[in-house]
Inverse folding.
């Protein structure tokens, strides 16, 4: 990631088809972008926490995800966790530019320094 | 054997194929074989396909998969909640046990090999007609060689039919009993049960579908999906080791060049957590706990994000990926890729 994280993260919501995105820092603090009426900060935090709670059963199953995608009927929810415990969440509509760019955004998040 | 098949006045079929030459060939064949009864629509991508499906007229979707690495489950999930009358069929240019399992798990009603000859197109046309219960024109009914045992079992089970499938090669080789869409008995010479079923899958010959009669005994207890998956896996494994098994050899070659597409383990449990089938799972209990945890999380996530039901969770691993389908009545875990996650 050549840009700093803040710049990169602030540009993510501009991707057509992205409904909301959020990030959870190792200290538990969360930040997000999206339509506040549909996805307020509390909801984003809750979603990130739901995924973070899966770490224990994932560890027990000896699975180390690079990322995971929850495929719902009308949307895809992607979580990407870095080894340093930063966690990214992307919620996108299927068959959109954002859906097609999920892997690229995930790779960028995994590759970049977070500052 | 004769089964009554209803006649529909206008049958709307959508063929999705990014290979325009193949698309034209399939469309022409289906129009000709149906003697004009099928109204065939076309699309070269899922975006275009969705535009056709939205109005609700399409009754049968045939999705051609030309690359063994295509993510069929993602394509199927892009349909969202399909109308209940829409049958979904995956037609793979390179069929493998793995993409068959992935397609069926993602909601496909039928998984078939993409035809490459006029005779193959006719076989597929018959398969699709049987799946949908649409009438076959007399010219097609006169003969339909080439339909595989697996395809026919799949069609009978999906339709919840009761019938007896008898395999011949000069003489009767064996029988498979299907009752209300479940395999209940198989016999092949001295063999019975799963060993007989697996043996029948490796044999070549013709087969006939008879009206159902109660079998002398019941030797099959697992669900038809599991039995079919296991028999197909064993047959493919056997063919891959046989130099003359050219079709399976090409599958094996495809898998060798595409390790990410190779099934490494599988677990199928009932909704209550009873293990129905597992294959090469290093930690069944941990996988089951994970499936149940995902199911619980999904129930919490669904009202939060309001994007409908969870179809599956895909986990991208360093080597390969895992696909989890946690449903109230069935918990499925499949890992694709290298031996170790």
């Amino acid at each position: 990631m050549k840009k700093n994280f803040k710049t990169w993260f602030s540009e993510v919501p501009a991707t057509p088809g992205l409904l909301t995105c959020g990030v959870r820092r190792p200290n538990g603090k969360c930040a997000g972008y999206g339509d506040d009426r549909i996805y307020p900060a509390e909801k984003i935090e809750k979603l990130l926490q739901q995924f973070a709670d899966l770490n224990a059963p994932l560890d027990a199953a000896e699975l180390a995800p690079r990322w995971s995608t929850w495929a719902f009927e009308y949307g895809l929810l992607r979580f990407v966790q870095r080894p340093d415990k930063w966690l990214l969440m992307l919620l996108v509509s299927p068959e959109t530019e954002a859906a097609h760019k999920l892997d690229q955004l995930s790779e960028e998040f995994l590759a970049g320094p977070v500052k | 054997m004769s089964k009554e098949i209803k006649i529909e006045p206008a049958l709307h079929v959508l063929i999705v194929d990014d290979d325009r030459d193949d698309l034209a060939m399939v469309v022409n064949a289906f129009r000709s074989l149906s003697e004009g009864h099928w109204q065939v629509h076309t699309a070269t991508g899922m975006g275009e396909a969705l535009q056709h499906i939205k109005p609700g007229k399409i009754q049968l979707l045939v999705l051609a998969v030309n690359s063994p690495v295509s993510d069929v489950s993602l394509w199927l999930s892009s349909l969202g909640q399909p109308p209940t009358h829409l049958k979904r069929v995956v037609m793979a240019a390179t069929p493998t046990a793995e993409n068959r399992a992935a397609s069926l798990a993602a909601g496909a009603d039928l998984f078939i090999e993409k035809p490459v000859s006029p005779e193959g197109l006719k076989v597929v046309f018959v398969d699709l007609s049987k799946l949908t219960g649409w009438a076959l024109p007399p010219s097609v009914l006169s003969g339909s060689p080439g339909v595989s045992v697996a395809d026919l079992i799949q069609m009978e089970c999906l339709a919840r039919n009761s019938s007896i499938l008898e395999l011949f090669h000069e003489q009767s080789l064996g029988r498979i009993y299907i009752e209300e869409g479940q395999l209940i008995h198989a016999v092949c010479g001295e063999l019975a049960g799963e060993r007989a079923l697996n043996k029948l899958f490796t044999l070549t010959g013709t087969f006939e579908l008879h009206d159902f009669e109660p079998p002398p005994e019941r030797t099959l207890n697992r669900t038809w999906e599991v039995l079919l998956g296991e028999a197909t896996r064993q047959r493919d494994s056997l063919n891959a080791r046989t130099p003359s098994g050219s079709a399976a050899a090409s599958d094996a070659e495809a898998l060798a060049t595409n390790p990410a597409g190779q099934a490494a383990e599988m677990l199928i449990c009932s909704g209550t957590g009873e293990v129905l089938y597992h294959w090469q799972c290093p930690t069944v209990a941990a996988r089951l706990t994970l499936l149940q945890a995902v199911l619980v999380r999904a129930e919490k996530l669904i009202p939060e994000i309001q994007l409908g039901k969870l179809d599956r969770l895909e986990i991208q691993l360093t080597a390969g990926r895992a696909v989890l389908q946690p449903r109230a009545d069935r918990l499925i875990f499949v890992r694709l890729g290298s031996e170790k996650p």
Summary: Chain A has a mean pLDDT of 86.
